[in-house]
Specification:
The structure holds two protein chains of two kinds. By secondary structure, chain A is mainly α. Chain A contains 14 helices and two strands. Chain A has a single domain, classed as MetI-like fold, CATH 1.10.3720.10. Chain B folds into two domains: about 50 residues; about 220 residues, Orthogonal Bundle (MetI-like fold), CATH 1.10.3720. The N and C termini of chain B lie far apart (about 65 Å). The chains are: A mainly alpha, B mainly alpha. At the A-B interface, α2, α5, α6, α7 and α9 of A face α2, α5, α6, α7 and α12 of B.
């Protein structure tokens, strides 16, 4: 065994040409900015964060090692953290599919033969360009209970106003509505996927007697599943990190109904200066995202269709 | 009577056709009606913002709301924007955004070239590591980064927001550029190599001129990210003279909120949104193409 290994190694070394060494050096030289950045701004912070998560650290005094105490406290003692987990899962499980479905339907509409298509495409895309801070202010005004555009119409009809962001029941759906409004990127991705649906396949289905709805369900959607997987994954990873609009618009309220993972983490780190406690939260977030990613990838074998595969 | 009969008989003769055409026309009309309704719904919040930014105070409080303020109060804009250093915020945003764009373009071009155009042992492993960093939430790195920048004395400067871009930390841009570089035929590079051109020479003389659209997309994405970024400046900057628009707009809010000065607030919001939208209209085509490339290859 060992002899064969040596032989293999020797053979590899024999095959290792000076040109390969040159290429290795060249390659490393070109990616060297990333190597430095990776070490300094990715690898080190991850390691440090893992360490801090096992400490009590308020920045003023040096970090003190406390083992898994932060994690225990989060899961056993911290009631807010449990609410935060629930809120975040709600946001991801409802918000991501809602955004995805709306984006896919809008893209399907845009994919039809029509006049003024570029205009409609631009209108649906535009909200993505609005900086989150401005978006928060615009929606604050749209949702205003007294003079917001929706409620002042409702008032003129003599009906009861909708307390969009000031009620526990409606605050999360109201934030999800804003998310659904900003689906431009997903729409463009879906539109590109829809344009790749072979018309021969659609024609064949039509000849076989499939109606429009059946064609949409059994041909269009399966062909677009790789794009759907991409949008779902990036959407999920992004949604778990939801921060800016929630932070500005509802500040976690009312009654912690919009206190999401990143908000609570930010509060612990930069308002209460519990850096160790916040780091433990960050690691829990990381693990949850990894688990969801694996879950989606595992399941994707069953529902994602790759045209290149034979079966 | 006769006419009616004639119509009836012609209907009977061409039943499939005549039945189809009005049905199609109605379907078409309904489709456009729906598109217009959806379009107005999606444009609604921005139109509402624009409309409010031009209103007088009484116009804001009319029930039901007016969409077309008459008279339009254009002077809301200079009045609102001069109540805070809006020019400084804009200048700060541009300064840091352009720095970040320069960093992203320079570093990601080099790194993507190393991953796409040179064959070297270990390359694919490094590339997979690079890609997998996309899955790491910013929150995991946030606290150590903050502490590191604090120790370096970089807090309250733009360095934490710019320096990482020069080190190709955003794997998404690297990935995009690499995908694009891979589509360029390798014969072009080989010919240049035979002629004694260095790798850097190939990158500058052959690859870059062909990759202009991809570079434009990266530049734009980074610019828009910087314009939009809130949590970065929130953590790293604390004196108002350094505030970019993302933080500046909040200063407007604390100022106007008390007195419910919605027209001023919407004027400031419109002024924050407008540059990005104007930029988008100039580069729309490149941008949409760039995004669709990523979706398909992702």
């Amino acid at each position: 065994m060992a002899a064969r290994h040596r032989l293999g190694a020797a053979k590899m070394l024999q095959n290792w040409t000076p040109a390969q060494t040159r290429n290795l050096l060249k390659g490393l030289a070109f990616i060297s900015p990333w190597l430095v950045g990776f070490a300094g701004f990715v690898l080190y912070p991850i390691a440090a964060s893992a360490y801090y998560s096992l400490t009590r650290y308020d920045v003023l005094r040096p970090a003190r090692f406390i083992g898994l105490e932060n994690y225990v406290e989060l899961f056993v003692k911290d009631d807010i953290f449990r609410t935060v987990l629930g809120n975040t899962v709600y946001l991801v499980v409802i918000g991501v599919p809602a955004g995805l479905v709306v984006a896919f339907l809008l893209a399907s509409l845009l994919n039809r033969e029509m006049k003024l298509r570029p205009l409609f495409r631009t209108i649906f895309f535009l909200p993505v360009l609005v900086p989150a801070v401005a978006s928060a202010e615009v929606w604050r005004w749209v949702y205003n209970t007294n003079y917001g555009v929706i409620n002042s119409v409702i008032k003129s009809w003599g009906l009861a106003v909708i307390p969009f962001i000031s009620s526990v029941e409606l605050a999360k759906p109201s934030l999800i509505l804003i998310h659904v409004w900003t689906q431009g990127t997903a729409i463009v991705i879906f539109l590109a996927a829809l344009q790749d649906v072979p018309s021969s396949l659609m024609d064949a289905a039509e000849v076989d007697g499939a109606n429009a709805l059946q064609r949409f369900w059994h041909v269009t959607i399966p062909i677009c599943t790789p794009a759907i997987l991409f949008v779902m994954l990036t959407g999920m990873i992004g949604m778990f990190q939801y921060f800016t609009i929630g932070w500005l618009l509802t500040q976690g309220g009312p009654n912690e109904s919009t206190e999401f993972f990143s908000l609570y983490l930010y509060r612990n780190a930069f308002q209460f200066f519990k850096m160790g406690y916040a780091s433990a939260q960050a690691w829990i977030l990381f693990i949850i995202i990894l688990a969801f990613t694996l879950l989606i990838f595992r399941s994707s074998a069953r529902w994602v269709y790759y045209a290149g595969e034979s079966d | 009577m006769q006419q009616a009969e004639a119509i009836a008989s012609s209907t009977a003769q061409h039943l499939p056709l005549t039945q189809r055409t009005p049905f199609k026309a109605v379907q078409r009309a309904l489709f456009y009606l729906m598109m217009v309704a959806l379009g107005l719904t999606f444009a609604g919040p921005l139109l509402w913002m624009l409309s409010t930014s031009l209103k007088t105070d009484p116009q804001v409080y009319t029930v039901p709301p007016t969409w077309f303020p008459n008279p339009m109060r254009l002077v809301n804009y200079p009045e609102a924007l001069s109540s805070r250093p809006f020019g400084t915020y804009t200048y700060n945003t541009l300064r840091y955004a352009l720095g970040a764009v320069a960093g992203a373009l320079l570093s990601n071009t080099l790194v993507a070239y190393g991953f796409a155009r040179i064959r070297w042992p270990g390359r694919d492993i490094f590339f997979i590591i690079c890609l997998s960093t996309m899955m790491i939430p910013f929150q995991v790195r946030m606290i150590p980064l903050y502490l590191t920048f604090k120790n370096l004395g970089w807090l309250n400067t733009y360095l934490p927001l710019i320096v990482p871009t020069f080190l190709g930390v955003n794997a998404y841009y690297t990935f995009l550029l690499r995908q694009f570089f891979l589509t360029i035929p390798s014969e072009l590079s080989d010919a240049a190599r035979v002629d004694g051109c260095t790798e850097l020479g190939i990158l500058i003389r052959i690859i870059l001129p062909l990759a202009k659209p991809a570079l434009a997309v990266i530049g734009l994405l980074q610019f828009m990210f910087a314009w939009d970024n809130y949590i970065g400046p929130l953590i790293y900057l604390n004196s108002e003279v350094l505030y970019p628009l993302a933080l500046g707009l909040q200063q407007f809010r604390t100022m106007f909120q008390e007195e419910l000065m919605w027209p001023y607030m919407m004027a400031a919001s419109t002024a924050t949104v407008a540059p990005v939208i104007i930029l988008y209209f100039f580069v729309q085509r490149t941008f949409v193409e760039g995004i669709s490339i990523t979706g398909l290859k992702g």
